[in-house]
Amino acid sequence: MAYIDGFVIAVPNANKDAFIEHARTMDSLFMEFGANRIVECWGDDVAHGKQTDFFRAVAATEDESVVFSWIEWPDKPTRDAGMDAAMKDPRFSPENCPMPFDGARMIYGGFTPVFEINR
Q1: Domain 3-111 is of which CATH architecture?
Q2: 3-state DSSP assignment of residue 60
Q3: Is 18 left (phi over 0), alpha (psi -120 to 50) or beta?
Q4: What distance lies between CA 61 and its chain's CA centroid?
Q5: In what helix (H) or strand (E) does residue 87 lie, and over which residues does it extend?
């Protein structure tokens, strides 16, 4: 069964184009390392909650948007090998491909699907 890596980040609105370019570069490398699918989503209808929300989760400021992304891998062993390869690849270094957002505020995790429905 597939394995999913999920990410939530805050990106300055002024860096939207830079983020998209960064994602195109990084995501093509994840595909090279075995990912099946990657989706990058710019927040469009993201509510501010009373107790918790995406904005608080990544300490987003008023001039930032929330980005929700995921990488779909064929399975966890492919993900583990792909992430290991990515972290060792010099193309992923901040010097070669600086992040247009504050990576320290990124939340992420790996998830095992338990249910799926398709059309």
Answers
A1: 2-Layer Sandwich (3.30)
A2: coil
A3: alpha
A4: 19
A5: helix 76-88
Burial of 2 per CB tally in 10 Å (0-12, 13-18, 19+): middle
- The confidence band for 97, taking pLDDT boundaries of 50, 70 and 90, is confident
d(Cα 37, Cα 14) in Å, to the nearest integer?
A: 27
What are the CB-based long-range contacts (under 8 Å, 24+) for 25-29? 25/91, 25/97, 26/92, 26/97, 27/71, 29/86, 29/89, 29/91, 29/92
- Tens of pLDDT, residue by residue over 32-74, are 999 999 999 999 999 999 999 999 999 999 999 999 999 999 9
List phi, psi (to 5°) of 39: -125, 130
CB-based contacts of 119, cutoff 8 Å, min separation 6: none
Structure tokens at 88: 């060792």
Block residue for tokens 């099946």? 36
DSSP code of 93? S
